[in-house]
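Supplementary Note 3. Input sequence used for the single-chain structure prediction.
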Amino acid sequence: MVAALELYLDTDATRRIRVLWDALEAEGVQSMRSLLEQRHRPHVSLAVAPRFDPDRVAEALAGTVVAAPLRLEFQHAGQFVGRVLWLGPAVTTDLLAHHARVHHRLARAGIELAEHYQPGRWVPHCTLSMRVPNALMAAAVRRCLEMLPLTATVVGAAITDHARGISRPLP
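The predicted structure, written as discrete structure tokens, is reproduced below.
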């Protein structure tokens, strides 16, 4: 399991993604709804690490509005190696600048982060499923495309480490 710095979406976008999770589940695709005893919340992760010290991360980000009211326009579905299905927002200058600002503050504090979440390598996304059976991937992607585009606004942020029961809100 990993720890993450998560950006949460407005109520309408969250509801629409949860409806999509249900549609995927009805088609035999385990969605993020099934993970973590249904405590998983639709989000976009800004940073990931094997483990976070929440106090240290909060201190590194003091004075930074992590939950910046960014507007996200989810316009595509994607797949990562390992059968991971996700929705992707259009990449904007504001989104990349916010991501870089957060990473700069964490790096300056000596907090090590996963390489694939570093500026220049990060693919912003909202994970829908981590276990799509190969035979169902095409149908799952079609289901995702049916509900796009999806406009969302970032309304919250938190440091999470579900393996350790940590969910600490950030400004």
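The chain has a mean pLDDT of 94. The CA atoms of residues 12 and 152 lie 8 Å apart.
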